[in-house]
Design goal:
Blueprint: E1 7-16, H1 28-43, E2 56-60, H2 69-74, E3 82-86, H3 92-104, E4 110-118, H4 119-128, E5 144-146, H5 155-159, H6 165-180, H7 184-203, H8 216-221, E6 224-226, E7 229-230, E8 240-249, H9 250-255, H10 288-301, H11 318-328, H12 342-345
Parallel strand pairs: 2-3, 2-4, 3-5
Antiparallel strand pairs: 1-8, 4-8, 6-7
Helix pairs in contact: 6-11, 10-11
Length: about 350
């Protein structure tokens, strides 16, 4: 038996809906509730009883109205839980690091991390002219609000239309192409190859939003969004999806009889909150912060990151994938770099 306060991930759950009728489904709060229910069911044993013992629930901010979503997701359960809202710009990793650290230091015993969107439902409402009802502003304040230390965009970038992620990441992509010495045509095919490989993974992922495998030529032939990104190369946020994770101490996992084969131990987490606007970076196509994160994780793993069995590289745009791969020492041509299909196909 490990130390009683060892943090353990005991359950993970997802929820997806896809209705053409915007009135047929639930909003983001409903999807997150469904994902949380799936997560405790995934844990097995009597883990469902933990919904009455949640010490903290952390939610990344989304495109919805409630100001204290964690309380709404718990829906009356664990009324004394501490609610955390992570503002847009806070790393998703921060929520998992916080959860594990809180359990380890004894300030929490059961922690839920949950997030979700219902953008597809919203889009269908706009298309059909029948707006779907959504949970409105609740006027509540979360117990903890996490916010980035600084803005990632500066006024010049906003003035020059670089606030759009498609434009910002495309500029980075251009810098990557220049550093690699590729022609525009060759680099576009290189990018399409990365996107195609993600689609192949998503085709085998039952939770993926888009399970259509695409060839390189099909990616290249899709509508152009911004050079060199066609639509499949861009993160898709018009999804109705949610995911939830339940973490607790090893002692609690044992007490509620979660089967040992459901226990996943978070070994290490590393993150950098260094936020340098793109126009201020010495090299637009590189991330020194990611290099340091990679070194820390490789040291914790005891081997190069490229040798790990499973990888999920953040994939909002292909330039992000390539910059991280270089920083982490991962050969994108030699091995899979996603187990989901990424934000292009698995869901944004």
């Amino acid at each position: 038996m490990p130390d009683p306060t060892t943090p353990v991930l005991i359950g993970a759950g997802t929820a997806t809906q896809r209705f053409d009728d915007p009135l047929a489904g639930v909003d983001a709060m409903g999807l997150m509730r469904a994902a949380l229910d799936a997560a405790v069911d995934d844990a097995g044993g009597s883990a469902r009883s933990l919904l009455d013992r949640v010490d903290e629930i952390a939610v990344p901010e989304g495109i919805w109205h409630p100001t204290d979503p964690g309380r709404l997701v718990l829906d009356g359960r664990s009324p004394g839980a501490r609610t955390v809202l992570a503002a847009i710009g806070v790393l998703q990793q921060s929520l998992f690091t916080r959860a594990a650290a809180s359990i380890r230091d004894g300030s929490a015993d059961v922690v839920v991390v949950v997030g979700g969107e219902a953008k597809w439902r919203q889009l269908r409402g706009q298309i059909t002219g029948v707006p779907a009802p959504e949970t409105g502003p609740d006027g509540a304040t979360p117990d903890v609000r996490l916010a980035p230390a600084s803005d990632v965009l500066e006024h010049l970038e906003i003035h020059r239309s670089l606030a759009s992620p498609t434009h910002q990441y495309a500029v980075m992509e251009s810098a990557i192409r220049h550093a690699a010495g590729r022609s525009p045509g060759d680099h576009a095919r290189h990018v399409a190859g990365l996107v195609s490989s993600l689609s192949q993974v998503a085709a085998g992922n039952p939770d993926a939003w888009n399970r259509t495998a695409m060839t390189v030529d099909e990616v290249l032939a899709a509508p152009l969004v911004t050079e060199p990104y066609t639509k499949p190369a861009c993160s898709q946020w018009n999804v109705d999806q949610a995911a939830a994770f339940v973490l607790c101490s090893a002692a609690t996992a044992e007490a509620v009889a979660v089967p040992r084969d459901r226990w996943v131990f978070p070994v290490a987490g590393a993150e950098s909150n260094l936020m340098v606007p793109m126009t201020q970076r010495g090299e637009v196509h590189r991330s020194p912060a990611a290099v340091e994160v990679g070194r820390a994780l490789a040291a914790a793993a005891g081997r190069p990151l490229g040798e790990l069995e499973l990888l999920e590289v953040y994939s909002c745009f292909p330039s992000a994938v390539q910059m991280q791969a270089e920083a982490f020492g991962i050969d994108l041509d030699a091995r899979p770099f996603s187990v989901t299909g990424g934000m292009h196909f698995a869901g944004g």
